[in-house]
What does this fold into?
Amino acid sequence: MIKFPWSLKMQKHKHMKNNKTNIDPVIKSLLEEAGTEQPSSQFSDKIMHQIHEKSMKSAFVYTPVIGRKAWILMALFAISLVVYLLTAYAGEVQPVESYGYDFHIDTTVFSSLLAKFTSLFASPILKAAILTFVVFTFINQLILYWKSRPMTN
Amino acid sequence: MSDQEDSYYIKKVLQGHVASYNMLVERHQSLAYTLALRIAKNHEDAEEIAQDAFLKAYDALRTFKHESKFSTWLYQIVYRTAISKLRKKELDSTSLDELQNVGKIHGHNLDGLDALHTQERKKIINEAIGRLKENERAVLTLFYLSEQNIREIEKITGYSTSNIKTLLHRGRNSLLFELNKILKDEIIDML
It folds into this structure.
């Protein structure tokens, strides 16, 4: 048994006396004795200060009247409207009467534009490039979502 | 620390009473800081980790679903913040060698520890804890000090039940082994 000559106060772990005893209570008492550590006295003040600063900043954050989703919906509506107009009236000559004069709007220009536009997608390379771009964008969005997910509890 | 009290303060914070978060910080700062310190082994880093964790917890408080204790959720954030900081800074470059004779150390002789002053004993125990591997230190601290059960430690660390049991077993043995080693070194120094 080891004894230090300069020992003044004896604090015995009764479990240490018996080597055959389960070590679990020994470890528990050791860790309890080591105890918890205290952060600096300003610890909670620093955290609360940062939180207050954050909340002050967020109070003055610019929030647009029309949100991102609304813009996307509006863009989709505009695109679908243009596509509909291009396809519905392609090839027709529309008469428009105004102030007694007969105007004719030649919409055949739309059909030729549409034909040119659709012919672009006939290329297999372009098709593959678009598909790759869509797939990579999707994967990128998935990764970003995964990284920004909240902690589980 | 009652979980009901935590829930009360969380509700207050979510209702817009930001100052109530201070109560949550005060209640959990000691164990959160101790866990951070056990992983980082450095007071400065531990304080930074604990602070970051509390700020992250505040930002994500709305996502806390009360499916576990607030402390479990908070320690999960502390643990992950500490590990990622450790990986970034490579603080723990001096890893301990695998203990070959872990199974042989049951015949521990810690009688020397009895004879030491309280402060000296605390210092030696902390030194021995500091010599353990980071995951052993974290698991022992969570299990014995913050009294989290194995399922909760599983959530905090992301380890499986069997991994945690192995870490606990190895951690216990390694702690006794290191204590014996330190005490023997002390005697040699005195001679």
In short: Chain B touches chain A through 64 residues (CB under 8 Å).
